[in-house]
Amino acid sequence: MAARWAMAASSLAVVGTGASWLTNSNEAVALTEPVNVLSGPVPSRAQQLAKLKESSVDKPYDVLIIGGGGTGTGTALDATTRGLRTALVERGDFACGTSSKSTKLVHGGVRYLEKAVMGFDMGQLKLVYEALHERKRLLDNASHLASPLAILTPCYQWWEVPYFWAGMKAYDLVAGFTNLIPSKFVTAAETVSYMPTLAETLRGKTLKGAIMYYDGQFDDARLAVALACSASAAGAAVANYTECISLTKDAKGQVIGARVRDVMTKEEVDIFAKVVINATGPYTDKIRKLADEKSTTSVEASSGAHVTLPAYMGSSFAGLIIPKTADGRVVFMLPWQNHMIAGTTDHSCPVIDHPSSTKDDVDYILKTVSEYLGVPVSTSDVTSAWSGLRPLPSKPAAKDTASIVRDHVIFMDDDGLLNVTGGKWTTYRRMAEETVDTAIATGRLPKSKACMTANLPLLGATNYKRTQFNEMAQVAQKSLGKEGANPANVVALVPKLGMNVLKHLCDAYGDHANGVLSMAHELSQGNLLVSGHPYLEAEVTYCCRHEYCCTTEDFLARRSRLAFLDVRACRAAVPRVAALMKQELGWTKAQEDAQVLAGYHFLDTTFTAL
């Protein structure tokens, strides 16, 4: 088997050199210097809703996108930066569905590469090649939200060492010049030093070492919010909590717009567009049926459950991949925001609004990771558990959802509705580019610029540096104890708050971290929302003003990630979050109380703390 990997690695070398059978002409162009067209402020939601009313049959938007997940927000940014008049509506919050419930990896797909090699599957190989090249772009364009992560593939039998080594070297090779850090073999002693909790024996076999490779890790929900805000700053009309309730057709039966409803006020408005794009993930067919009740099924849903464990169960430095479980799946255990997340499952399921992990899901994940750890893991260690729905292009011949290639599909219905579905977070930008290219190819849109997003830093990353935290911490430390220190120097607040809070702010808000600190100073909101977690009261206010945060759920699940990390702490934070939002958004007492109850209901129906 190792020889087969070696042969595969050799034959795959051409992929990294821009083989024409895996790429298009655009990829042959060398990466250019980053561009920045996000100079404008982020309009308020009220301003955006007013902007959505400005279209008409005679003056339509160029593009209307339905869906505010990773694909939809990415498509909005692509379209508006090309100069197209762009609108986007999302019935809930940005990334409220699939896009906030991923494994938090920016990856090419190690298991897809194995399937490509073992099954001579060019579709899988193409998917890995595209994803690995997009991985680097995502890490560069959202540098505050994404970074490389070391992942260990433990070897308990000697034959596994050359097998996994050759596989990871093939992975490096396919990545070509976009590779992050070369993979390598590490001894058993080194492996345990990287992950002290790793079991030194497995089914009677001793640990021989591990293959360490690198993929990217990111904050999925905050990336979607950054994309939505970036598209907004670039000129798009973007609105969350704006539901598409019907599609509008012309006399020829072609889709020319949608009727949408503001979920908050119940006001309805018609939006007209030259091209309407359906980017609703698992709900793709629901939107298609608004145009044609007889439309066939194009998407299947697959459930992916995860559990969150305390940081001491793993390592802050490296993650773990269990490449083949008893039933043939892949399970990861990864450090994320001072916790460990483990998952995932992969099985067919119905499309529902609030999927949650089942007891069987949690038991399966815990049983799998427990076998590879030297410390016992039980349900009492779980601080949160959740499940997301993956949208997979329908393949009737596939024996199960795990067998369906995770590629994206772009297709236009006879009524002119343009649909994009499938894919994964890593390739969101490429999916968006191809979707807008397809829209332009219809001939309905005006002449526009070429795609600009390949090297476009998002809001928060525009002036961000990897050393931002270090530099801010240095300034804070120097100001410590100095008499007459300028209180307007908000970094001087850091010693009081703690360096872990500053690190969190830099990671979450990038070059806007100072804005949060300024708000904490000016509004006396420098207190922690809840003990044991680095979230400040000022973040609630900041996200309401600058990131379209409308509900307690929005903040607790997608502006902060507290719901995904610690359900009990999240419950404790709900009343204070609601009080801060009442103050900022002008809620009545009744609205505040309703949002407290809504926050509790969201946690009870979507997350599990055992």
Structural features, described:
This protein is of the alpha+beta class. It contains 20 helices and 20 strands. It has helices at 2-11, 45-52, 70-81, 110-119, 122-141, 160-175, 188-194, 220-233, 284-291, 359-371, 428-441, 468-479, 494-497, 499-509, 513-522, 537-546, 552-559, 562-565, 567-585, 589-606, and strands at residues 61-66, 86-89, 105-106, 146-155, 184-187, 201-202, 205-206, 209-218, 237-239, 242-249, 255-262, 268-278, 299-310, 318-322, 331-336, 339-343, 347-348, 384-393, 408-412, 418-422. The strands form three sheets. Strands 3, 4, 5, 8, 13, 14, 15, 16, 17 and 18 form a ten-stranded mixed sheet that branches. Strands 1, 2, 9, 10, 11, 12, 19 and 20 form an eight-stranded mixed sheet that branches.
